[in-house]
Amino acid sequence: MKVRVGHLYPDYLNIYADRGNIAVLVRRAEWRGHELEVRALSVGDGVRSGEHDLLYVGGGQDREQALVALDLAAKADGIIAAVDSGVAVLAVCGGYQLLGRSYRNVDGMELPGIGVFPLETVAGERRMIGDVLLECELEPGVRRTLAGFENHAGRTRLDVSAEPLGRVVAGFGNDGESGYEGCRVGRAIGTYLHGPLLPRNPWFADWILAQALAHATGGEPPALAPLPDELEAEAHSVSAKRAETRGGRF
Amino acid sequence: MRFPVPLAAEILAARSAGRLSRLARAGGGTTVPGKLLWKLDPDAVDRLAARLPLGSALVSATNGKTTTAAMAAEILRPRLRLAHNRSGANLVSGVASTLLEARRAELGLFEVDEAALPEVAARVRPRAVCLGNLFRDQLDRYGELEHVAQRWRGAVQELDPAATLVVNGDDPQIGDLVRDRPDAFVFGVDDPRHARPSLQHAADSKYCVRCGTPYEYAAPYVGHLGDYRCPRCGHGRPPLSARALDIRVRGLESVSFRLELPEGLRDVQLRLPGLYNVYNALAAASLARALGATLDEIVEGLERFSAAFGRFERIAVGERRLLMLLIKNPAGANEVVRTIVDGGAARPAVIALNDGIADGRDVSWIWDVDFEPLIPGLQTLVATGDRAAELALRFKYAGLDPAAIEVVPGLERALDRGLQLTEPGAELVVLPTYTAMLALRQIVAERGFVRPYWESSAESAPHFSRVGSDRSLRSGDEVERLHK
After folding, report:
1. Which residues contact A84 (CB under 8 A, 6 or more apart)?
2. For a disulfide at B37, which of B14, B51, B176, B198, Cβ 3.0-4.6 Å?
3. B483 assigned to some structural domain
4. Residue in B144, B387, B405 nearest the CB of A61
């Protein structure tokens, strides 16, 4: 099966090794006999509904975020239509902020978001930096952990009715107070976690891949064949321990 | 000369602390005296620096500051007694330690941490400042690149108007500092044969610092360093006062180039490899010139120079050799990879990834390094360090056969495994992050193959610069304070 990935602004939003996440998706699809076709969607490129099964957007510094914010607004209709049609989304850090409703950066500049996620972000004085561990329940009754690293000035506040990605076990999370991290809207996930996130959390890479395959086939997310993930498990365990011993808190 | 009694007493106390710490073998005790002095009286650094009869010069950059400062020291040493933090103790406390130890020095020559530059410049009041490059580096510690660049701009504005500013014009952020200081001395590379076909993935300042439009590069050399111009507002590389022309790379052995300074044109043969060392040599030549070195002294110094601590070291271990090259951020590691591949690739390689404060706690940077060119020649990767598994994943997802990856978290065992995989007479490439480099050096020192770093730092100038490095011993509070 061919899975079509639109990678938004790889030339601007790539600060925390976002290409590592893409590499993991490409290989893990390939090892199951699927093909991931990754196309860049940068400034000036249109996003048309029906052309993608997965949209990825990475992190950037304030300057790069400001450079793409206007262009993203021009893509908003296409992206929202895609999300409504069940396209999977993974948005990390700066991309997560811009897919909310708005982001006010450290200089007080208000950047418009496109409202895929029901949240708003305002940068605070102190950056939230450190290892982080979450507990997620993406399928009812199935609890799994995500280990990563966060580095953000933005305090992200979800609407009361919004669903977070996970509960913070160690680290700051969305705003350092709520005890939650990230946001989920159907098959769309936004998170501050990089590291990059997917190499050390292979179950989550497969979950994203399965959502994208579901869109590609028009069916349910398939069960993917297990892979030898010993290295991944070891990397996850070291990262999780780091969060427990030195994760950030106010 | 007489000093206020408190300062003299503080110096005495701090020096004793350094000796005690060295006796206790606590990493050489290199920054301990400076830390103590800095705690007792932060302004003592200002007074100690003011005692240097010929003043001070500062070198800062994300990559190459240790090597650049060491090259400048090699050029200046025959003529001057230097206070030089030669092995990388580059926060305020490290500068303080160096000043404490350098009793008869005439000139201070300090490499300075990027975040510490504003404070060190304000205290030391340098007569010359050399700024080399800004790349993404330890984002968990330094924050965003823009933020560091802004603080540098502020530090430049606060410099004494008579001070000489030496800048790398090939870095857009740094070249733009010339706007505030039209008399700055600008260096850069001019040899399009060595340009990369396109900007690397890890290039950082690729959008115009003035208007945000992507730069057009006539020649990108290292990361975003090169000959750039903004097609919209016209901001481009400033005119160069010093250039490197006609560069010839000789694998892992050496690199030569033609050095053009206002005084004339000379061929220089470095005993170090890599295009990035041409940048370091240009920076050192430009700074030494600003401090009064002649063209002859510059060329002789550069050609005498062999290596800076831990950056590029060949260590004989029985019948085999270790080639140790420090990796610490994407731009620097990319150049190390390019140099290794130019030199005929690595068969077995030991790569050591630690995640201490001095390495960067966030290890995501390894995914921004272009390790891929190593893969075709790599028979076995020994992945080691505190984050060995993460490093192994980097290579697994880059397409290296998992059977060729061995994860050996302990550094000593990993080193032995690497040596075991190396043919007698051959060379084992070892790429450690900073704290892993210190630990590996300690291991080979304990086996008698290399002297501990505080001894080797002292060997060529025992009275003036017995100051080792120890970023791993940096107190967390000093780092925290600087990076806010």
Report:
1. none
2. B14
3. no
4. B144
Contact predicate B268/B279, CB 8 Å? no
User: Is B359 domain-assigned?
Assistant: yes
Q: How many domains does chain B have?
A: 2
Interval A175-207: pLDDT, tens? 999 999 999 999 999 999 998 999 999 999 999
Angle at B94 between CA B159 and CA B67, to 5 degrees: 80
- A52, A93, A136, A215: the catalytic one is A93
User: CATH number for the domain including B200?
Assistant: 3.40.1190.10
- Mean pLDDT value across chain B: 86
The B-side interface with A (CB below 8 A) comprises 136, 139-140, 143-146, 201, 206-207, 212, 214, 355, 361-368, 386-387, 389-390, 392-394, 396-399, 402, 405, 407
Dump strand ranges (E) for B251-355. Answer: 254-261, 264-270, 312-317, 320-325, 348-352
Do B136 and B242 lie in a common domain? Answer: yes
Q: For residue B136, what pLDDT is reported?
A: 83
A63 touching B (Cβ < 8 Å):
yes
Q: Considering CB atoms only, which of A17, A149, A246 is closest to B368?
A: A17
Same domain, B299 and B326: no
* CA distances in angstroms from A193 to A97, A168, A179, B82, B113, listed in the order given: 12, 11, 14, 47, 28
The 10 Å Cβ neighbour count of residue B75 is 27
By percentage, how much of chain A surpasses pLDDT 70? 100
pLDDT of residue B303: 96
HSE, side-chain direction, 13 A CA sphere, residue B32 = 20
**Shared domain check, B213 and B67:** yes
Shared domain for B99 and B166, answered yes or no, is: yes
* B138 and B280, same domain (yes or no): yes
Of the candidates B155, B68, B56, which has an alpha carbon nearest to the alpha carbon of residue B99?
A: B56
Examine the domain organization and report whether B334 and B371 are in the same domain. Answer: yes
In the residue annotation, A183 being an active-site residue is answered as no
Expressed as residue numbers, the domain containing B200 is: 5-305
Output the domain CATH number for residue B408.
3.90.190.20
Residue B367 to residue A17, Cβ atoms within 8 A: yes
Q: Does residue B220 sit within a domain?
A: yes
Catalytic residue among A52, A152, A194, A215: A194
**ipTM over cut 0.95:** yes
From A11, A17, A232, residue closest to B364, measured CB to CB: A17
pLDDT tens across B335-375, in order? 999 989 988 867 899 999 999 998 999 999 999 999 999 99
Residue A231: domain span: 2-246
pLDDT in tens, chain A (250 residues): 999 999 999 999 988 789 999 999 999 999 999 999 999 999 999 998 789 999 999 998 888 888 899 999 999 999 999 999 999 999 999 999 999 999 998 888 899 999 999 999 999 989 999 999 999 999 999 999 999 999 999 999 999 999 999 999 999 999 999 999 999 999 999 999 998 999 999 999 999 999 999 999 999 999 999 999 999 999 999 999 999 999 988 7
Q: Is residue B159 domain-shared with residue B295, that is, in the same domain?
A: yes
Of B136, B389, B402, the CB nearest to A235: B389
- Name every residue whose Cβ is closer than 8 Å to that of residue B446 and which is 6 or more positions away in sequence: none
Q: Measured between CA atoms, how close is A160 to chain B, in angstroms?
A: 31
B201 and A129 within 8 Å at the Cβ level: the answer is no
Please indicate whether residue A7 is annotated as part of the active site.
no
The minimum CA-CA distance between A114 and chain B, rounded to whole Å, is: 22
